[in-house]
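Lecture notes, continued. The same structure-token format from the folding unit now serves as the input rather than the output. Read the line below as a description of shape only.
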């Protein structure tokens, strides 16, 4: 049986109930997942046939050794993600849980290991009072200071290139023309013309025009 997101949800739900010290039942699983008891019963039948759990009709639900191993893998990914969102990104616990529930099904073992190592490194930096981490957290609390595409800059504003998001030929062309991180752009204007508009600005004393593709690929502070 392939471990779809829904299958992993059921395994994790049973594990969560067990870890809370309760006995997993159809009623409790339905409550935790927000589905009907009939839906749970049908799902448990499939999971039982696949050897991931045991469930006698009207009886308790228990994970098999294989099912418990898979449930723990999902639980571990969920905890890594939730910890990252709460302690590093400053999410509320409730929001972190919701986002983790979506993302936990999409990451593989390598991503999980790298995320865990990254989170642990940040936690050590936090305990050591590293200045760079405080600066990073300050920037996350000030989204107005984050880069935005040139096409979204205010009329008449100036900016410094933070990154180029274009790929392949467009990226090469922009880089060759001097559009690299650190370059300064001034007096950004938008006028009608090409689909999406025409964007004019000054860089290194020269007037330049961009279409929407270029203006979307150059991000500025």
């Amino acid at each position: 049986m392939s471990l779809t997101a829904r299958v992993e949800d059921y395994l994790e739900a049973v594990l969560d109930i067990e870890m809370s010290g309760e006995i997993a039942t159809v009623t409790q699983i339905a409550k935790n997942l927000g589905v009907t008891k009939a839906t749970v019963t049908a799902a448990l039948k499939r999971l039982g046939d696949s050897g991931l759990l045991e469930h006698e009709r009207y009886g308790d639900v228990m994970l098999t050794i294989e099912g418990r191993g898979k449930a723990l893998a999902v639980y571990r990914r969920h905890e890594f993600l939730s910890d990252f969102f709460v302690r590093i990104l400053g999410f509320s616990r409730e929001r972190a849980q919701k986002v983790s529930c979506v993302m936990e099904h999409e990451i593989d073992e390598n991503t999980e290991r790298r995320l865990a190592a990254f989170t642990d490194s940040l936690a050590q930096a936090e305990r050591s009072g590293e200045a760079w981490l405080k600066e990073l957290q300050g920037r996350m609390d000030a989204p107005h200071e984050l880069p935005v595409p040139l096409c979204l800059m205010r009329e008449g504003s100036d900016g410094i290139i933070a990154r180029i998001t274009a790929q392949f030929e467009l990226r090469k062309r922009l880089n060759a023309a001097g559009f690299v991180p650190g370059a300064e752009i001034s007096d950004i204007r938008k006028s009608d013309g090409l689909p999406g508009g025409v964007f004019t600005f000054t860089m290194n004393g020269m007037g330049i025009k961009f279409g929407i593709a270029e203006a979307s690929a150059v991000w500025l502070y």
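Point for the exam: Residues 65-88 form the longest helix (24 residues).
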